Amino acid sequence: MKVWFTEEWVTGFMIGIQIESVVYIKRTKYQHLAIYDTVELGRILTLDNVIQTTEKYEYLYHEAIAHVPLFSHESPEHVLIIGGGDGGTLREVMRHPEVKQAVMVDIDGDVIEASKQYLPLWNTGFNDPRATVLVEDGLRFVAETDQKFDLVLVDSTDPEGPGLALFTPEFYQSIGKILKPGGMLCAQTESPLAMPAMVREIYQRIAKVFPVAKLYTAPVPSYPGSLWSFTCASFEADPENPLREPDDSWNLKFYSPEIHRSMFVLSPKIKRDVGITY
Ligand code: SAM
After folding, report:
1. Are residues 206 and 175 in the same domain?
2. Which of 77, 91, 143, 182, CA to CA, is 20 to 30 A from 37?
3. 58 CB less than 6 Å from ligand 1?
4. Which pLDDT score is estimated for 170?
């Protein structure tokens, strides 16, 4: 008998992934956490029945959210990751020798612990001596911290449940206050093909706070619409041009300087839908 995990991407459109076995399930304080081994996508992590990350495609998302801001910042020494409990973004951030300190703040310690134990592909950044992992609400952390950062990466769940706070104007304003001169915010901003109205709302909120707000996209076949958006924002820095290149020894699968620039090329429909005027 075939057993399927299904996720309704948008009303009336569902995808199915054939499950081989259940690795781990827990109702945490904040969400329903599940890790499965699947026939086609390898190991996957879901939260509240929404796919977060899959062994087959995780590199697309994590290389896109990390390397665009890191390579376009002159000297990314202090990096803050909000969310990112699976560890994939931290893993990519830690590849950069310029990074002196990375602080990851996820609200759910159970996601972090399960990832450390069951997601070996994702978890290699956790033991880096430059990394500090905190279990705390990201909204509260950015509002209360005294520290300033070169980059803030927001690797959140969707704007529902605990993730909702990470899409509020208040959150973006607080990030603006903890960026060093030349600093940048880079946030995952949902699917421009599957949920254009949501992307527009999020993008416009960010653009109200930051004079520079640039949307870029990367293919992620396991997310709604199979195309995901990110927004890099700052008071002056431009994220479109890479200033350094990855080392060959990193063996990246998606990111390159050419891909970096190409990710900022948007279709006319996406520009219209999101209200992008640059
Ligand atoms: N890369 C995947 C994606 O975009 O779907 C996964 C992102 S990662 C698993 C999302 C993390 O955000 C989760 O671990 C969740 O616990 C965390 N999160 C949700 N709300 C949060 C909040 N208010 N503060 C900090 N972390 C939060």
Report:
1. yes
2. 91
3. no
4. 97
- pTM, to two decimals: 0.97
Residue 237 has pLDDT above 90, yes or no: no
Q: 138 with 27, same domain? A: no
**Is 132 found in the same domain as 50?**
no
pLDDT digits (tens, 9 = 90+) for 36-92: 999 999 999 999 999 999 999 999 999 999 999 999 999 999 999 999 999 999 999
Q: Is the CB of 143 under 6 A from ligand 1?
A: no
Same domain flag for 119 and 199: yes
- Asked if residue 87 has its Cβ within 6 Å of ligand 1, the reply is no
User: Domain range spanning residue 45?
Assistant: 3-54
Q: Into how many domains does the chain fold?
A: 2
- DSSP string covering the chain, please? --EEEEEEEETTEEEEEEEEEEEEEEE-SSSEEEEEEETTTEEEEEETTEEEEETTTHHHHHHHHHHHHHHHSS---EEEEEE-TTSHHHHHHTT-TT-SEEEEEES-HHHHHHHHHH-TTTGGGTT-TTEEEEES-HHHHHHH----EEEEEEE---SSGGGGGGGSHHHHHHHHHTEEEEEEEEEE---TTT-HHHHHHHHHHHHHH-SEEEEEEEE-TTSGGGEEEEEEEESS--TTS-SS---GGG--SS--HHHHHHHT---HHHHHHHT---
Active site residues: 155
The CATH number assigned to the domain holding 10 equals 2.30.140.10
Q: Which atom of ligand 1 is nearest to the CA of 112?
A: 14
